[in-house]
Design brief:
The protein is mainly α. Helices cover about 55% and strands about 5% of the residues. It is built from five helices and two strands; from the N terminus they run H-H-H-H-H-E-E.
Length: about 170
């Protein structure tokens, strides 16, 4: 008959093996998510380029091309900063996840934006709930040092975001 202590050790060993298995599965999923986020970022850049090209295809009377929303026309005519994914800070930290699209949208706008404008730019709804959810995310990015909010409700990219990491740094 096995002792109680041996049974506990066997169960702990089994749990340890399960934890390691789950961790390896999480690591594999994180790699898949990163690859898919990179694809999503490329699609977003392609969409911006097409929007810009369509906006240039004005009709002879100066009206925007048919089917293009006025916001897209205005955005396409603004000077655009180029920020490539992944978005990094000068300290070498890399921004991950859907927040990267927020920073890219702000970089493309070239000016501070309100949460509703950012929702439009990243393609989420502009109803109350998504706008408030975006505002919470933006406030979090301000606390993390990725964005600034110099005027209440106007968000901009923080200094150093998008700058290359220092060569040979301790990041």
């Amino acid at each position: 008959m096995t002792s109680l202590l041996e049974r506990l050790r066997a169960r702990a060993s089994k749990s340890r093996a399960r934890v390691e298995d789950l961790r390896s599965r999480i690591a594999a999923l994180e790699k898949e998510v990163a690859a898919e986020e990179a694809k999503l970022s490329r699609w977003s850049v392609a969409e911006e380029a097409v929007t810009e090209l369509l906006a240039e295809d004005d009709t002879d009377d100066g009206e925007p091309a048919a089917g293009l929303p006025p916001v897209a026309v205005a955005a396409a005519r603004r000077p655009q900063a180029v920020v490539s994914a992944p978005v990094t800070r000068g300290d070498g930290e890399v921004l991950a996840g859907a927040s990267e699209d927020v920073v890219l949208a702000l970089a493309s706008a070239g000016r501070p934006l309100r949460s509703r404008e950012i929702c439009e730019a990243v393609g989420v709804g502009t109803e109350h709930r998504p706008v408030e959810g975006m505002r919470v995310r933006l406030k979090r990015l301000v606390k993390q040092g990725w964005l600034t909010e110099d005027q209440v409700g106007l968000f901009a990219i923080a200094p150093g975001v998008g700058d290359p990491a220092p060569a040979g740094g301790d990041a």
